Amino acid sequence: MLSVLKNPVYRKLFTAQVVALLGTGLLTIALGLLAFDLAGSKAGAVLGTALTIKMLAYVGVAPVIAALVERLPRKVVLVAADIVRAAVALSLPFLTEVWQIYVLVFVLQAASATFTPAFQSVIPVILPDEKAYTRALSLSRLAYDLEALVSPALAALLLTVVSYNNLFLGTTAGFLVSALMVVTIALPTGEQAAAVGSVWHRTTLGVRIFARTPSLRSLMVLNLTVGASTALVLVNSVVYARDTFGLSNSSLALALASYGAGSMIVALNVPRILDRTGDRTLMLTGASILTVGLLLAIPMTVAAGAWAGSWWFLLALWALMGAGNAMIITPSARILRRASTDQTRSYIFTAQFSLSHAAFLITYPIAGWLGALGLVWAVVALAIIAAGSMIAARVMWPAPQLAPEPVATMTGA
C-alpha cells in the first residue's frame, strides 16, 4: 500500500490531505462541545441542523463550482479553498450564538465542496494504474480512519490542559499547512479538458451519467445506507456520551475513535479483499453490516439507562459500523473511475460528492431533530432507511456480466 508514496506528487498531496484531516477532526470534536455549551441536551438538534446546512452547501454548491472553475488551474482552486477554510475555522472560537454556527458552517463547507472533488479527480491522473490507484484509495481511507483515532486522542489530551476553543486553532493550522503543501506541487495539466457546453450542461452532466449506469445507480442508493449510520454516529455520539451516559468530554473522543478503528481495519485489507471478491460483493456486504448495526442500536439505546455494559456495547457497535462504511466508501472511487473518461472524470466525482451528501441531507435532520424527541425514534428511522436502501442496491446492481458498462462522454451522457 505504501508503495504509492514513492510518487512525489501523490506523496505531497497525501500529506496535504492528512494534515487537513487532522485539523478537521479537531473541528468535529470542538464543534460538538461548542454546541453542547450553547444548547445543552439539545446539542444533537444543533449539530443536526449544522450538518444539514453542510449538506446543503455540498449538494448545491459543488456541481456549480465544478462547472464554473473548469478552466482554472487545480492548484489555484485547492489553495484558495484551503485559505477560506482556515479563515472560517479561526473565527469559530468567538461564536456566542447558535445562528452564527450555521452561517460559518455554510461558508466552511462551501469551500470544502470546492476542494474535495477537485482533489479526488486529480488522483486518477497522477496514478493511472488501477492497482496503484486502489492502493491510494485504501491509503486515503486509512488516513481518514487514522484521523478518527489520532484526532480524538489528541483532542482528549489537549482538553486536559486547554479549553475546547483552542482546538479550532489546530483546525486553522491544518488547513494552512495543506495549502502550503499544495503550493509546492507541480500538478499535471492533462486532467483538465476544455469546457464543453453550457454551465447548466456541465453542472448536470455527472448526475446524468449516474442515471444511465447500473453500478452508479446502485452507488447512489448505497449513499443512503452510509448516510444513515454516519448520521447516528456523528450527530448523536455527543448526546449518548454526555447526556445518556453522563460521561466526560473525553468519552465523545473515545466513541469517535472506536468508529474510526473499525473503518481502519477494513481499509488496511481492502486491496487484498477486492482481489478476491470484487467491488460489488464487498460494497453490498458493507451495506448489510450497516443495516445490522443500526438494528442492534435500537435495543442498545432502549437499555442504555439500565444495562451497565451498554456503553461498551456502543463502542463495539460504532466500530462495526465504521467497518461497514469503509467497505462501501473505499471501493466506490474505483466504480467512478471505470465509468469516466478524462473529460468526464471531474463531473462524475463531483456528482458522487453531491449525491452522497444529499443522502446526509436526509439522515442528518432525522438523527438530530427526531433524536431530540427521543434517540430511539431516530435509531428506528435510520435503521429503516438503511435496510430499504440496502435491498434496493442489491436489486439495482446486477451481478457482473461479460459486457462492460457504457462509459459516457461529455456530449453523450
Automatic annotation (TrEMBL):
Its main location: membrane. CDD domains: MFS_MefA_like. PROSITE patterns: MFS (PS50850). InterPro entries: MFS (IPR011701), MFS_dom (IPR020846), MFS_trans_sf (IPR036259). It is found in: Cell membrane. It is a multi-pass membrane protein. One of its GO terms (molecular function) is transmembrane transporter activity. Coiled coil: none annotated. Keywords: Cell membrane, Membrane, Transmembrane, Transmembrane helix. Residues 9-401 form the Major facilitator superfamily (MFS) profile domain. GO terms for cellular component: plasma membrane. Pfam families: MFS_1 (PF07690). The chain crosses the membrane at residues 45-69, 148-169, 175-200, 221-240, 252-270, 282-305, 311-335, 347-367, 373-393. PANTHER family: INTEGRAL MEMBRANE EFFLUX PROTEIN-RELATED, MAJOR FACILITATOR SUPERFAMILY ASSOCIATED DOMAIN-CONTAINING PROTEIN. This is MFS transporter.
